[in-house]
Amino acid sequence: MSKQELGLIGQDAACCPGLSAAPLDDEQAADLAKVFKALGDPVRLRLMSMIVSRGDGGEICVCELTPAFDLSQPTISHHLKLLRQAGLIDCERRGTWVYYWALPGVLDKLAAFLTGPRTVGARA
């Protein structure tokens, strides 16, 4: 995986200001659209949930992910590849199996982007 793919949602706070902080430029919008598109599929959303539920630094083997779906192994691998390309997860091959983990801080950055500043008396 290239460093460019990992940086899609940014490694610094300046990349992804909250929605209400300032309008996104073309590049920021394109980068975030890739992330949201990756999460917009129910299978990929479930895969991401399974990976993230392992906690900080936790990892999960593809052998544990595949049986949870009524899909072929190549289809699961394709979905995992799209999550990797969006900069949400990474992986490592160990012998026969591939282990996946969520990249640190990725979901926090997405949450910060979606969360606007709270004001007194604001409605949820």
List keywords for this structure.
single chain; 124 residues; alpha+beta; 6 helices; 44% helix; elongated
Describe the structure in your own words.
The structure is a single chain. By secondary structure, the protein is α+β, with helices and mostly antiparallel strands. The chain has helices at 3-6, 26-39, 42-52, 62-65, 73-85, 106-114, and strands at residues 60-61, 89-94, 97-102. The protein has a three-stranded antiparallel sheet. A hairpin with a 2-residue loop joins strand 2 and strand 3.
Q: Shape from CA axes?
A: elongated
Report how far apart the termini are. Answer: 39 Å
Rg, rounded, reads 16 Å
Strand content: 5-15%
Please give the largest β-sheet.
3 strands, antiparallel
Helix-strand category:
alpha+beta
By oligomeric state, this entry counts as: single chain
The DSSP helix count reads 6
Helix content: 40-55%
Q: Point out poorly predicted stretches.
A: 1-14
Order of helix and strand elements from N to C terminus: HHHEHHEEH
By DSSP, the count of extended strands is: 3
- What is the mean predicted local confidence, pLDDT? 81
Strand order, main sheet: write it out: 1-3-2
Write the layout of secondary structure elements.
Elements (H helix, E strand, L loop, with lengths): L2 H4 L19 H14 L2 H11 L7 E2 H4 L7 H13 L3 E6 L2 E6 L3 H9 L10
Antiparallel strand pairs: 1-3, 2-3
Short description:
The chain is of the alpha+beta class and 124 residues long. The protein has helices at 3-6, 26-39, 42-52, 62-65, 73-85, 106-114; strands at 60-61, 89-94, 97-102. A hairpin with a 2-residue loop joins strand 2 (89-94) and strand 3.
